[in-house]
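[Discussion] Sanity-checking designs against the backbone

I'm trying to build intuition for which residues belong where. Below is a structure token string of 335 positions. I'd appreciate it if someone posts a full sequence so I can compare it with mine line by line.
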């Protein structure tokens, strides 16, 4: 593989011009750029990105930190981020924390060592100590939070109105004639799940329906135990005719559990989730849900970060409005 000296000789331009091409300088004409890139391809030349980053102080890399890559919500956000970032000439490095603060801190340290230009992140369920995040802020590395944010002042974030989403979901169940509604709540230590619980309670109280908040914490790891828990809930509260799950994955587990208990959805119990995951339309019956605008959240987060990379802007918090997606699991069969 040849180097930039060989490319300069092949194209008849200076070494400085070749360097400008690989640094995406606007000083190079389109014709010259095309000629240099063709010569680079002919000799299989690939620029040393890290060396260039050390010289310029810019890596052209943006770090993305998410709790779980295999979560459809976060994968949709990453798709939204990637579309915006790649069009702007940046590459992304993705790290997942598996909801552990220790992993989150390690990822932040690694991104600092790589001298990334900026960071996009959603904090883990465990994160209570913001020392490492504050270190990033103090380093002047631009950072934008999405979905979940730390309780720090003057930060950039793109969020969803989780309270409103839960309120809409609960009101939809009430509109579908549900009078005794169960909310399967998320981890109380995570602010977005607490906001959803508050929205649920507010809607139920406003419309004066009977309601219950409960947790099935082991549903992913111990379905048998959760089946027994759900049996107990329904036995104690036999009039439950609507269930609002804090997330679509939880709602799918509930759908399976209800099927095992021979409880028909939506005939006997109406069920709604939160997230509008890709699989929500594929279940039997298809799952009503609250759309979180996940791709848009990724796009807005990336654009906000790019704005901060160009010029320092005032801290901004953008809040997206959720949307109700009606499907079969909340349908009134007599309509």
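Best answer:
Here's mine. Compare freely.
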């Amino acid at each position: 593989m040849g180097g930039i000296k060989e490319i300069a000789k092949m194209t008849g331009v200076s070494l400085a011009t070749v360097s400008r091409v690989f640094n995406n300088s606007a000083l190079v004409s389109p014709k010259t750029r095309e000629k240099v890139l063709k010569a680079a391809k002919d000799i299989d030349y690939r620029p040393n990105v890290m060396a260039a980053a050390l010289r310029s102080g810019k890596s052209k890399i943006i770090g993305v930190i998410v709790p779980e890559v295999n979560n459809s919500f976060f994968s949709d956000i990453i798709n939204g981020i990637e579309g915006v970032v790649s069009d702007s000439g940046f590459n992304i490095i993705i790290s997942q924390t598996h909801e552990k603060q220790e992993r989150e801190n390690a990822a932040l340290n690694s991104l600092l060592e790589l001298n990334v230009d900026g960071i996009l992140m959603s904090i883990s369920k465990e994160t209570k100590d913001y020392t490492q995040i504050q270190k990033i802020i103090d380093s002047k590395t631009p950072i934008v939070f999405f979905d979940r944010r730390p309780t720090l002042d003057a930060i950039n974030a793109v969020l969803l109105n989780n309270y409103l989403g839960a309120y809409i979901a609960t009101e939809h169940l009430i509109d579908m004639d549900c009078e005794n509604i169960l909310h399967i709540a998320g981890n109380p230590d995570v602010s977005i799940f607490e906001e959803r619980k508050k929205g649920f309670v507010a809607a139920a109280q406003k419309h004066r329906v009977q309601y219950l908040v409960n947790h099935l914490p082991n549903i992913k790891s111990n379905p048998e135990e959760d089946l027994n828990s759900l049996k107990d809930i329904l036995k104690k509260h036999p009039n439950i005719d609507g269930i609002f799950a804090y997330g679509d994955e939880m709602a799918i587990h509930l759908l399976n559990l209800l099927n095992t208990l021979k409880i028909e959805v939506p005939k006997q119990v109406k069920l709604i989730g939160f997230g509008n995951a890709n699989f929500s339309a594929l279940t039997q019956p298809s799952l009503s849900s609250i759309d979180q605008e996940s791709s848009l959240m990724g796009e807005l987060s990336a654009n906000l970060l790019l704005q901060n990379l160009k010029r320092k802007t005032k801290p901004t918090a953008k809040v997206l409005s959720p949307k109700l997606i009606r499907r079969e699991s909340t349908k009134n069969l007599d309509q």
